[in-house]
Design a protein that fits this description.
The longest helix has 37 residues, at 284-320. 56% of the residues lie in helices and 12% in strands. The protein contains 18 helices and 11 strands.
């Protein structure tokens, strides 16, 4: 049976040592985020994840959701109780402003504990995760009346939220959507159409579900310029906030999926359902993108989370499973064979995952901190830089962490050999659950195109140049430190490859856009390798400083340095491979006729 232990010490190391979160006490919400409070919150989150959410993960996968003849949906046994425990602890509103019932704490802290929840039960955590995205969109684009009507109940978790974009005939190309909105004459609209792949679209865990739905108002322009966003509640809401009659929205079916069986992924039918415009007419994508960008960061976190729990179980198995003898001599003479942890190839797999998860955790929290600074700082220059970095990092975090999260779930499964293919061991679920994260909230090929086609050149390349300068300055500042040489040397080599590939795009993609498309995925992963390497360099510096000061657990810091060395020696060299692929261009790829495939 699988096990899970939240990596509290690793999280606190990143928050306190690497990010120095106490330096941001001048930002709203950070004044209460003292080291003691952070440790208390993170520890309580770990307890909830381990004791309430994780125990119903495997059973939730096995049972799945059930749609009944009356179009209602029931979730797996134990999900409602675990969801209530999550909401009653105030976790859903951890980073939401206090005026709507939240705690107003940093989004960085919300991301830190969110990892534990997703590792423990990814399918269950999608219900409040979608709600948090809907809250973010209403906070930014909703009217004061809409905020007052919907947010308090959503923050406390008695109402949930969804996002409705995809239709049977269109996914990424939202300009093709057909869902229509007809004005009722009283400020509301009749919403009609069908949406598919709607996570948490129907269930009985909350008293109401607040759907955010993209639709086109009659007479609006074709394409994305004519899309508006609407709030469509499952049950109508009275002026006093009470739940009333059923609205014209129903679950037509539950999708039969590869994984995340505990989440109700629904086909939603809108039959002249009453909806309310959120934001301006024909500006729906701008409003929905607030939710989508938050969701993309959350999905990146899912990739990390699944890799972490898969790693923990694979490491435990490798320490206990005996098979063969060590190549360098017997290591367990009292046993008939050595534990497989002695074999170099097993260690290669485990260290590859470990190096990814520890750097991925730092990357996620560093990016979340940029979001906090962008939304809370009073310094305009600081806000702009943070917002630039947040926009640049979003497709990289989503694309790289989910691609690698899946790869590493498979790698962890491989450690088990044949047992990894057997359902009772739990590894199959992690592989199946991780696979969706590469697809939803914008498939990873789209993330790569967004990075290369839009984010690189935004504001004259201001964001990418700022990041290159930051990483270059770090390498230069630590170049003479003998303890940092292996980290700064590897990082500088990766940065050189990234800068050269960026320049290649500038010289070769304008005249031939297919070059950008052909190299975009490799470029996204090249960028990810460098950013994760930067996180390792920062962690190594912090670990060396802690060892020099004689504070904390010396073994913990030594293991950090070893894992970082492994990353620089065995993983960072992939930047050269990615650069070579990028510079191959698109000619061969595009030459073959479509009929020949």
């Amino acid at each position: 049976m699988p096990v899970y232990k939240a990596p509290v010490n690793d999280t606190l190391f990143v928050l306190n040592n690497v990010l120095g979160i106490d330096r941001y006490h001048n930002l709203p919400g950070f004044e209460d985020a003292t080291p003691d409070m952070i440790e208390a919150i993170v520890s309580e989150a770990a307890k909830l994840a381990e004791e309430q959410l994780f125990p119903v993960n495997l059973s939730g996968d096995q049972e799945g959701c059930t749609r009944h003849d009356d179009a209602t949906v029931t979730v797996p046994k134990g999900f409602k109780e675990a969801y209530d425990a999550y909401c009653q602890g105030g976790w859903l509103g951890l980073a939401v402003p206090a005026e709507y019932g939240g705690q107003g704490l940093p989004y960085t802290l919300h991301s830190a504990v969110g990892e534990y929840m997703s590792s423990a039960n990814m399918a269950l955590m999608m219900y409040p995760g979608l709600t948090q995205g809907a809250i973010a969109a209403i906070l930014v684009h909703g009217s004061e009346e809409q905020k007052a009507t919907y947010l308090p109940k959503m923050v406390e978790g008695t109402w949930s939220g969804t996002m409705n974009l995809t239709e049977p005939h269109c996914g990424t190309d939202l300009g093709l959507l057909r869902t229509k909105a007809v004005p009722n004459g009283d400020g509301s609209y009749k919403i009609s159409g069908q949406k598919i792949f709607i996570s948490a679209g129907e269930h009985s865990m909350t008293d109401n579900i607040i759907h955010l739905v993209l639709a086109r108002i009659e007479g609006a322009p074709e394409g994305t310029k004519g899309i508006s966003l609407f709030i469509v509640p499952k049950f109508m809401v009275g002026e006093d906030g009470s739940v009333g009659a059923r609205n014209g929205v129903t679950c037509g079916a539950i999708e039969h999926k590869m994984g995340i069986h505990g989440n109700a992924t629904c086909v939603m039918n809108y039959d002249e359902a009453t909806g309310y415009l959120i934001g301006a007419e024909n500006k729906g994508l701008a409003a929905m993108f607030v939710m989508m960008n938050e969701a993309r960061l959350g999905v990146g976190l899912q990739g990390l989370s699944i890799a972490e729990i898969a790693y923990q179980n694979a490491a435990n198995y490798a320490r206990e499973r005996i098979q063969g003898r060590s190549l360098s001599g017997v290591k367990a003479p009292d046993k008939k064979a050595d534990p497989i942890i002695v074999h170099p190839d097993i260690r290669r797999s485990l260290l590859t995952i470990k190096a990814f998860t520890e750097a991925g955790r730092a990357f996620t929290l560093w990016t979340a901190l940029q979001s906090d600074i962008a939304h809370r700082s009073g310094d305009e220059k600081e806000k702009q830089l943070a917002d630039d970095l947040l926009g640049l990092m979003t497709p990289i975090l989503k694309g790289v962490l989910t691609d690698k999260g899946f790869d590493h779930a498979v790698m962890a499964q491989q450690v088990y050999g044949g047992h990894g293919y057997i359902e009772e061991w739990g590894m199959s679920q992690y592989v199946r659950d991780a696979r969706i994260a590469m697809i939803y909230e914008g498939a990873n090929g789209i993330q790569a195109l967004d990075l290369v086609g839009r984010k690189l050149g935004l504001n004259g390349g201001r964001a990418v140049m700022a990041l290159f300068n930051e990483i270059g300055a770090f390498c230069e500042e630590n170049r003479e430190d003998e303890k940092m040489v292996v980290y700064t040397k590897g990082l500088k080599k990766g940065l050189n490859d990234l800068q050269a590939s960026t320049m290649w795009f500038m010289q070769n993609a304008m005249a031939k856009p297919d070059n950008a498309g052909a190299g975009s995925t490799d470029y996204m992963h090249l960028f990810g390798l460098v950013v994760l390497g930067y996180m390792w360099a920062k962690m190594a510096k912090s670990a060396n400083e802690a060892l020099a000061a004689g504070t904390g657990d010396a073994d913990f810091y030594q293991n950090k340095l070893l894992t970082g060395r492994f990353y620089m020696e065995r993983i960072m060299p992939e930047t050269a491979l990615r650069k070579t692929r990028i510079e191959a261009g698109a000619d061969t790829m595009m030459e073959m006729a479509a009929e020949a495939f």
